[in-house]
Amino acid sequence: MVRSVPARSLHVLHLVVAGDIGGAERLLVDLARRPGGTRARHTVALFTPNRALAAWLVESGLRVRDRGPVRENPVAYLWRTFGPADLRWLLQIMAEEKPDLLHLHTFQSHVLGVRAAKRAGIPSVRTEHHVDYYDDPSRAPFTRWAARRTDLTVAISDYVARVVTEKEPSLGARMVTIRNGVDVGYFSPNAGAETLGASADRRFVVSCRLEPWKQVHLAIAAIALVPNATLTIVGNGSERLALEKLATELSVAARVTFAGYHRDPRPFLHEADVAIACSKDEPLGLSVLETLAVGRPVIGFDGGGLPEIIANNVTGWLVTDRTASGLARAMTAACDLEASSLRTMGAEARRSAVETFSVDKMAVAYGNAYERALAPLRPAN
What is the radius of gyration, based on Cα positions, of the chain? Predict the structure, then answer.
């Protein structure tokens, strides 16, 4: 039975089934911290094997209903998605919390969330952070089934919206783009921003998870082609050992620093002159937005969602040749740029983040999306 929703401050229950602290989790923290923008209060129903994620959400000030340590593997996914126990637990949480709608994050939340929302008679909103599970034969049937039954889908970029609607045309009328935002107060230029570009060597930085699709090996191969430049890699992942080996093989280990994972990447962004984003078809690039916000230009491949946030030759460089050589040519251009011109690009990067990509604008947009999803349930005046 679908219940009507009165016009008042909303209660949003976020369903998170995840093992890492990633973009989806950071998004919901940003939303929860801005009840004025979203016009809602927020609670999280959490399934995770990662106790650090659970602790981080609580430390961030969220109300968390924690299922407790769970397994993360295909068998556990199928049982959680189609079995009775986790659905029963989620429905009990929903009965206690009485949310107005359910916001779904991450692939593993899709089917379970839609089943629970339909059973409880409330709308579901789903944020599409990636497009890869629409191509994966083992995941596509599940995500498409759930997508067709979701009341409103939010894409984090026009690129994601385009790809998803091409693969699932039924979503066209129920799709809206809301780009991820960045906290421009937290991510801001440092006191020494006026020294940007003053070093004899250009200092490049990559900040991301070290996984194959991020293609960090291209940045290492490119730095080998760019003398008088250094590279700092912030992040960890399955590729780290292979990347360290590559730096040694290319004789650039002395110019490449592996900083590991840091919850706060700002010191590394502040120390750099230019950031690099070399992943293949990045859906949007939250780390790119963070870099722009601290006043640093970004070199990125001309694909995915990056052209929506990087203005070529204004706030960074868009590279059409998606190879190490193409990346090296853009890095060389950054090295050849005078310090004053580099600082101008940094100032433009900061301005674009503040004016267009702030987390406050994102929160307002999500508040509008929640209202849209609930509109069919509003009582007529």
Answer: 22
